Amino acid sequence: MQLRRFYIDPDRFGNKVELSPEQTRHLSRVLRLGTGEDISVFDGCGRESIFRIVDTAPSGASVEFVEDIPPMSPESDIAIELAVPLLKKAHTELVLQKAVELGVSRFVPLITKRTEARTSAWKAERAFRIAVEAAKQSGRATVPIIESPRDFESFVEGFNGTGFLFYESEGSVLPDSIDNESVTVITGPEGGWDETEIETARGAGFEIVHLGGRILKAETAAIVATALVQEKFGDLN
Question: Above 80 in pLDDT, residue 1?
Answer without folding.
Answer: no
